[in-house]
Amino acid sequence: xxxxxxxxxxxxxxKTEIIEAAESLFFSRSYEDVSMDEIxxxxxxxxxxxxxxxxxxxxxxxxxxxxxxxxxKEKYMECMEKQVPGIAKVALMGQAYYQFSQEYPDYLxxxxxxxxxxxxxxxxCTAEIGKGYGTCRLILRxxxxxxxxxxxxxxxxxxxxxxxxxxxxxxxILSMENKWKLVIEAEGFSYxxxxxxxxxxxxxxxxxxxxxxxxxxxxxxxxxxxxxxYVESVEKKR
Length: 238
What we know:
α4 (57-81) packs parallel to α7. Helix content is 72%, strand content 0%. It starts with a helix and ends with a helix. By secondary structure, the protein is mostly helical. It has helices spanning 3-28, 36-43, 47-53, 57-81, 86-103, 105-114, 124-150, 159-174, 178-186, 191-206, 228-237.
């Protein structure tokens, strides 16, 4: 390995170390409570060195958000590649978003926080984040189109608009403020039951209703949709 290659590898390794140190701090605290000085101390570098890699704290934060977006995108792509009907892919993508929220709650929090107007639109990462999240929605749109083509999803709905409705719904449910979760719990339901009821509501709403393609949420279990267990608990309660 030549000197240039070694220096490049060392530079990339240092950049990764900075990102991981910052990620640890942002996962444990809010954006405002983390400073570049703390990040520098965590990674044992001079703050001036940090600025050689990242323009400011916002850019570093956005870089970590992109990590989370990539994980969510991979989950959506895995759903899209499954050999199942279009409507099952749609449900599995909703489930993938839910799984992402459970497995990576800190990434989810950071993604939603970055969506606020707190951050500059001039940040080059902003466009990348929008593109990454947009790719997830496009994958969902394509799954809806597949469902229309295979007859499992109604042909009278627009794939773009439906993908927007669903992504916004997923985002709202999974970023719900704690005060609303308390309201749900006060009525005797768990947050998981609330999330599952959404699927029980939306599946018949987009199903084609054709004799051999009409589906309810329980019909999706054979395709790997597991949130139905929460729906069952709701029904027993009633």
